[in-house]
Amino acid sequence: MKLTQKFSTQTAGRLRTAGFLAAAFALSSIRGFAQAFDSTDLKTGISNSLAVIMMFGFVLGIAAVIAGGFAIRRGDVDQGKMSIIGGAIIAAAPAVIFAFFKIFGIDDNSSVGIGAF
User: Fold this and answer.
1) Separation of first and last alpha carbons in the chain
2) Contact 93, 57 (CB under 8 A)
């Protein structure tokens, strides 16, 4: 009987400590839930990501068009045509993305610059 009494007080002390730590953690994390959502930050992040993708895609598209020209010069006309068409599609992707920005109304802080569209 004495052993269970001692075990109960140790368990109660540990539960009290664990409860205190859980309450402290919960109360300190409430500030994270209080942050206001700002869609402008999301739009800017997406826009910057698309700008980086646009830069790589444009260079890759130009390289594909050049490779298609070399394939046609070698005599592989079918492969050359497909490479030129694919390169043109890849290089034109920023214009398509900008059109999506216009359609969905998030073009006000778009960094995808393709000129007047």
Assistant:
1) 85
2) yes
Q: 76 near 82, Cβ under 8 Å?
A: no
The two tokens of residue 27 are 């109360």
Cα separation, 46 vs 41, in Å, equals 9
Calculate the alpha carbon distances from 91 to 26, 64, 72, 94 in Å.
50, 9, 19, 7
pLDDT per position as a tens digit, 49-100: 777 877 888 889 999 999 999 999 999 999 999 999 999 998 888 778 778 8
Ordered alpha helix ranges (H), the chain:
2-33, 39-74, 77-91, 93-104
> Domain extents for the chain?
1-35, 36-112
- List the structure tokens of 42: 């999301």
pTM of structure: 0.51
Q: What single DSSP character describes residue 36? A: P
Note the maximum CA span of the chain: 96
